[in-house]
């Protein structure tokens, strides 16, 4: 099955569309006028339009495709997220604070999308990525923006500048418990809403899996991540970081 995934900076909770909203519609409950005006609907609508334009019949967005009231489903989703993005036909990236390619190149402060924890794996995992500006304008003319990183010299330099990631890794990232120093540095300044997600969002990048346990705290979650990396590597060199 070919499908598109969305990578984006979440809106405030009152603006996003959730699985609960779709469940209400499926049960016959029409959204109120206030609900229909939420910006999340427009974002999903444009996401679907871009997927249809590329002849993709299925889409997946984290805001509305995960039942966050179910701890079991949330745990499975978090541990599967890298694979879902990896197996997508296209990852559509919305840079909601960026109007165009020139603005992206000239920005002294990168779009907020580059500062979030979960978007790191959403950039690295997919084999095909397409960047869009705030008005859903394509930032480049290529169908797959990862191709820019394979050119000599590599293009789309604003992505490399904002992330500190090499063109080689941006073009063809290989997950695993290797290059720990570099990969930890990529994530070091990124932010997550919940502290534990700093660790959980790195599972796919290091190709390890740990159970999620919200409430354990960021430090404990990170310790468990490091333990999993050490077990996968078969040594303790990760502690040098």
Automatic annotation (TrEMBL):
Organism: Coniophora puteana (strain RWD-64-598) (Brown rot fungus)
Tree of life domain: Eukaryota
All copies of domain Heterokaryon incompatibility, residue ranges: 3-101
Biological classification of the source: Eukaryota, Fungi, Dikarya, Basidiomycota, Agaricomycotina
Pfam families: HET (PF06985)
Name this protein carries in UniProt: Heterokaryon incompatibility domain-containing protein
Alphabetical list of InterPro entries matching this protein: HET
């Amino acid at each position: 099955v070919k499908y598109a995934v969305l990578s984006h900076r979440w809106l405030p909770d009152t603006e996003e569309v959730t699985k609960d909203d779709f469940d209400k519609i499926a049960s016959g409950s029409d959204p109120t006028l206030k609900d229909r005006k939420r910006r999340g609907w427009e974002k999903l609508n444009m996401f679907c339009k871009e997927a249809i334009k590329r002849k993709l019949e299925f889409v997946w967005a984290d805001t509305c495709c995960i039942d966050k009231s179910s701890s079991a489903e949330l745990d499975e989703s978090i541990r599967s997220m890298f694979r879902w993005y990896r197996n997508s036909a296209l990852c559509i990236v919305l840079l909601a604070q960026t109007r165009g390619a020139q603005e992206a190149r000239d920005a002294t402060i990168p779009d907020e999308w580059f500062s979030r924890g979960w978007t790191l794996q959403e950039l690295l995992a997919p084999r095909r990525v397409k960047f869009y500006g705030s008005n859903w304008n394509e930032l480049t003319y290529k169908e797959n923006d990862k191709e820019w990183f394979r050119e000599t010299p590599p293009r789309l330099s604003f992505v490399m500048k904002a992330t500190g990631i090499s063109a080689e890794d941006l073009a063809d990232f290989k997950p695993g418990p290797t290059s720990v120093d570099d990969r930890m540095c990529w994530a070091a300044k990124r932010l997550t809403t919940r502290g534990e997600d700093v660790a959980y969002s790195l599972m796919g990048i290091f190709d390890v899996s740990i159970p999620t346990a919200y409430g354990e705290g960021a430090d404990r979650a990170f310790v468990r991540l490091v333990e999993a990396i050490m077990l996968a590597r078969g040594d303790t060199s990760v502690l040098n970081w």
